[in-house]
Structure formats: structure tokens, C-alpha cells
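Internal tracking record. Fields below are filled automatically when a chain is submitted to the structure queue. Please do not edit lines marked as system-generated. If the sequence contains nonstandard residues, flag them in the REMARKS field before resubmitting.
Queue: standard
Priority: normal
Entity type: single polypeptide chain
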Amino acid sequence: MIYGYARVSTKEQETKGYSLKDQEKDLISERCIKIYKDGFTGIKTDRPQFKKLLSVLNAGDTLVVTKLDRFARSVIDGTKIVQDLIEKDVKINILNMGYLDNTPASKLTRTIFFAFAEFEREMIIERTQAGKAIAKEKQGFCEGRPPKYTDHQINSALDLLKNNSYTEVERMTKISKSTLTRAMRKRKNK
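SYSTEM-GENERATED OUTPUT FOLLOWS
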């Protein structure tokens, strides 16, 4: 049986040629019968569909992945998974590399590719943290998502609560009860 695995870790990947649909198309062209898909970062080993896939692979099966970094983003995890599959007599076909096996050349190649994938991931984290540090220095920085409603909208909705119930105000303003409750609590604590 030929199985495929596709993974995206960011919304950006969905638009830059790494989409699940693009990967799935490549896997179908490789005659994959069943394709498992995840939307999790490669550093996480608790990817549900990947776990499910690993549990169904048997000796003689083939696992097809479009790129090695879809498989894992750390040398240790990637090497262990590949080694376990090879010992289980599962063939591993990485479309941009070829088949992985226990030859010294294959071990070296996958170790180098996993090392680059891990390095790339760590560089992304480093750049993200540097960007956050710079942003925090700017006046008015607020970590997290920007507020959905302006202070004026919230205050107007809270004023409506003087003569209306939370449910009525929610219906009139489209601001959820939980948001109104938090804002009211905040107003009372001032």
C-alpha cells in the first residue's frame, strides 16, 4: 500500500506553493492510495494524522512525502522516525530527494537535510523574537491580536446596558456577552 503525508504549519504556506492541495496533488501523482494531512508545525510530534499514519504502516508499505521538512523539523525526531520505519521494512520516498534507506549516503543526506530544517526553524523563531523585542519598544505596543472593537464602541454598548439586557445589547451591537461582561468588570474596577 502507498500512503502519502502532507503538512502545512502556517497560513502563509497555504499560499506559497506548499498548500495541502498542492502536496496532495503531488502525492496522488505518485499513486498514493490514502493521504493523511496535518496543519501543525513540524516540531510537534503529537500531530494526530501523522500518528494515525504511523500506526497503520506495515512491512512492504511505502510512505511518500513531498519534502523532508514536511516529515519532521528536528534531526533527532526525524532520524528516529525514519530509522523506526526502515526497521519496520517501510519504504520512504521523499519526492525531492528519493528513497531513504540505511546506506551511509542516505543516512548522511537525511541528517544534513534534517539539520537544515531544524536550523531554518530555529532561525524563524529567532527572527520572530527579535521582531517582538523591537515592537515592544514602540509606544502603544500591545501583544496579541488588536482589539476587535474600539473603546468608543465598547463604552456605547456598556451605556446601553443601563436600559437593556446583555442579550439585547449583544443583538443590537454584535458584541458578545462575554466581551461586554469583561468590559463591564474592567469599568467597575477603575
